[in-house]
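Notes to self after the call with IL:
- keep both proteins in one doc
- input above output, always
- annotate only the second one for now

Protein 1:
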Amino acid sequence: MAFPPPRASARFFAPGVLLLASLALFGEGLLPGRAFFFRDVLHYYWPMQATHWRLGVVPQWNPFHQGGLPFLADIHSGVLYPPNLLFALLSFPTAYALLLVLHHFVGQLGLYTFLRGKGFERPAALTGALAFGLSGYVAGLCNTGPLMLGLAWMPWVLVTLQSGLVPLRRLALLAVLIALQLLSGDPQSALYSAIASAAHVAWFAERRPQLVALSGAGALGLLLAGVQVFPTLWLLTESTRGTDAPTYLGSWNLPPPRLLEFAFPYPFGEYLGQPQFWAWGMIRGPSSVPFALSVYLGITVLVLAVLGVRRERFSGFALTLCAVGVLLALGQKSPLSFLLASPPLSFFRYPEKYVVLVALGCAGLAASGARAVLAGVSRRQLAGLGVAALLLVGLLGFTWALPSTAVTWATGLMGLATRDSSHHPVIAGLAARAMGTSLCFMLGMLALAALASRHPTHRALPAALLLVVAGDLLWTARVTVFVGPTSLYREPEIIGRLREEVGSPPTRLFRQDKPLKANAPPSRTLEELIDLRHYELATLKSNLAGVFGLEEVTSYSAVELWRYRAFMDVLAARPELVGRLYGACLWMTSSAPQPNPEGLVSVIQGPDRLDVKRLSGCPPRLRTATRTTAVPDQSEALRALSTGSVDGLQNVSVEGGTSRTYEPAQVDAVELGPRNARARVVAGAGGTLLVFATTSYPGWSATVDGDEAPVLTVNGAHMGIEVPEGTHQVDFEFTDPGLSSGIQASLAAALVLAALLVLSRRSTETAGETTPAGP
């Protein structure tokens, strides 16, 4: 019997549901006057995009942060990711929210398509897609936008891997998807895809064709993104990411007690509001708030996952993802911790991120469980669910009746230290609330399963199942989505006055974080957090100076040059010297009484006790020295600065140079560009050494009257060149050392990709010609 094709409305039902879920989660950010702002959104991603378009379409050097560092090479910038063009067309808050919604939708749709390809019916595949897209970890990625952008393409890698495309066409499409992940700003998403694909290859047939496609696509994808990857490889060797031991493996591991949060929403409390999160002691990271604000998988999802486990390949695939995800997320406490210390895993920070693999595996099992529920589960399975619910009721009752005893036992088992016993009722209340919420949704799923076992053909069952799962996850996910007013993205009043003080050629800013932070308002509620962000905007925290075209020395970046980091660490106790050597003449600090370096004169009094001071006698960015001291390496150069054997101004250390004395010289007609500098130097007999106070990095070249001059490393972090006697035109210019080879690699890969598509088309046509016609 032939079935009629599905109506158009049925075809669009699943995408419509998934888009609605994305809008329900992140749609508030698209409303007029509303904006995402939490974590790095305001302090890192906004400055990154603002400086990107201020510097041009493909900026190579970023002069606004840390005294200068590569821009394109910082793979987190996403300079070449096509959808990021939205930032050039729309305001940052709107573009950011739109990218979140669209990529979240694309990721959900990809998993839905993958599950449909595995033979799951529409309701079951939709359940799995929602279980993944609305999980606590994925919902929390709204605060780290590029991670959502890269993650969106992971399910599509699996879709392509299992597809029936011609082998060459499949390889080409996989390569494009991998390249998109590498360009998105979150290259770790390509690693997630590799792990998920490896699990797929291990569990499903046609392993050899899949391995060939993956290996070929991996190499071709890397080359396609070569214009981004090759500069990044250079940056790795010059940054703390490539030179330090992976000490960050101890940061933001998934603490074993948080495994409870897979099933119970916020058992330790929320991070904003009252009562607050209480188990701060188990968090190890750059802040006391964990990287993953939520790792809630959903009690309904876990129930479905238990029902969905079968003696079949798909269950093995999904369980493998769950197991690998948990073991990697545990970090130092995992038996797989040795893998995290080895490339390529060692390139990425914060093991907690691998929870995304657990969410993906549970989503697959949830789809299998949804199919089982809609087909009618057995009485034995219903009885098992009922026993689990009764146990949860008993545990909830015990917690309510004997809160102190329950807290003592629970914290003892988890190895958590608690405050005095007077806080036990609060802790017990948080645990009871988490268990009560899970119990309600668990009972809802139990009732639905019981109804399905009696009336498996009831037309309302699929919709009810989707509502229960979505309701469970959205109820918790809403707490990880922080939206505030767009006033957080306005130019502060003080900017105009700062621009006047900066002058031309520009001087840099030096922000004294500690006194400014001491005046910051509290942030225990969402309203207080918004007030804090307004204060941080007014005081240009982190990278915000770069948004308005002002250069800063003490800014934050996900990638730091090792020369800059070592310089700042050694001279941490001498900020005045740091400011002078980097040409940071303006200091942003607090007007509250505090010990200040000598030579600071107040020039601007702003709101919130903000005080801007000028460093008297601050040397310019381009200056000459009268004496050089030869040192073998950076450590000796920094030791000389810290002990005072060189002052870094008139007497400078030169790595691999010679010790010399020069007559005073004149520097004028100074011009500073985004990736170049120019000056006229008038040197006396014997010449002079011209110091360029920008962080040293390969790719900087210098010429004297058009003739190339060797660039020397000065004071352990900066650059300098020797200028002969007389009047000369000196130029510095930066060209990313990996850019040329990266462009060549990308062009070559693009040609290979085009050839693959042509060959695949010809093979398809040939196969069609040789196929005998039907009767």
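Protein 2 (the one to annotate):
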Amino acid sequence: MKLLALGFLVSLAGTGYWYWQSTAATTVDAVHLQGPIPAQTTLAPTPRSRFTPTPSTRKGFYSLDIVSDFSIPSTKTIIFCGAGRNLHVQQDRTKIFRRGFSAVDQSRMVSGVELWRDGFPQNGWKSVLQPIQRALIVYRGYFRDAFSLGWAENSEKATETVYRTAPVAAGARPGPVNRNTLYQASMELRGGCVGFGDCSPSGMKSTYGFIVLDIENDGTSLGNRQEQANLYTYMIKILKENASPQTLVGSIAPVLHNSVGYSRAEDYKATADWLWNTPARHTASSRQRGMPDDIVGKSFSDYADFQMPGTYYVYPDFDYSIRHNGDNDRHWLAALLGEQEVNMKLSPKKRIAWQWLFNTQSELPNSAQAEHPAPPAVAEGMGIFYWFTGAYGVLFWDDHTDLIPDQPSPTDPNAKGVGNDRNYTCYEHYVHGLWRLFKHHSDLFNGRETYLNEATECSYDNGQTWYKYNANQIKTHDVPFVRAIVNGDQILIAATKAYAPSNQTNKVMMRYVQNGYTFYTTLTLKGDEIYLGRATMNRDKKS
């Protein structure tokens, strides 16, 4: 393998090892082993559920009974905002909570049971959902339509946006409330407690476990950036002040760095996006529009509880017939892992990624509509590999809400591949991935685990040379992906050779030599199947 031109070899006296230390931004450590390979440990492979996937000819339907009951650990969250909860909710409202999901968006909640939708609830009524099970996505239409804030649609209108009208002077008669302010829009979300029947007698506070902003107006001209940073800082501050202390607030944007699914080498040199941490400062008109002094010097990042790095796929990510190992080539797994590897270094905030199991619309080939589901290995791999990055959660999203199975194919070509016309078997493979990971290994996610990420050490030449690759380097070297989690003497390993044909076999060695352990193992990978295995490591006798 070619190593980076910058760097130097260093000899470790008495160890029998050589390693490469690079001065480049993305480090490749190559350790040359001298002497025999220590005894290897065979991993115990994680079971797979035996199920027959819904046929590709059936549309608008998926089954959650392809696996048995399981839940994710309390240290993680998966918010359901997917399609088709109506397929099973009448028979068993709790099924999504017994199939890995831990919270549900309000748009998918059961009226009168989980959420009261029509005015104030009956006396004594209370939602069956605990706060941690509740999520609210706030789209731009909320600000634009209900409060006439054109800024939500067009960020260049930031200078027209009123923060808050001046308070009424002492003794003066209050006039009508001006609802067309960012304060009013953000503050009124506190009324969310009404729909759950648990408002405090001392005043309203939102009792959602998660409030997620999806405004997507973050792009703006250079001269408008300060205004934009001020508004985002003020908005999230008011949201948090009007929510319970347990409510976590974040936004799909700003994200510290968005690789847009490309996982390039240059992404690892990225710095944080300006909107994430630009401090609020008064502008020529900000005081007149009601911006308070108490946010000066604060930024969006000071108030956000979580960041949301992650990108939707486009069809080329699902195309096994094209090249995927160039630096500029798209690659489903390099994108999934790389986005997390880059952003975890830019901020220690919790990470919650949006995940959608269909291609998003784009101008790339076969991507005009969201008609292509993630292939089985991609869907299952999303439910496994993502959690090896140490991320906190997922917002599982779909652009369709309810599903009606087995509808005739639409005659309108623009409706093909939309909602009921899609095959949703990808949901089954995704939940199967979650089941394999959390049904069998939840005990490892107790807050004491270590995620190796780029420090996962692998050999592709039978143990002669060892490398620590980031996701981009694995992609461009066209070798198997391996990631590991260590917790005490337990090691859990996920591996796959992405895009490999079903008749191909690939071998890779992995080791963990630190913290008193000397662990070696060899993985044999078939096609692009998602391998998951666990072992108990033995203490190094010399330690």
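Annotation: The mean pLDDT is 92. The two ends are 32 Å apart (CA to CA).
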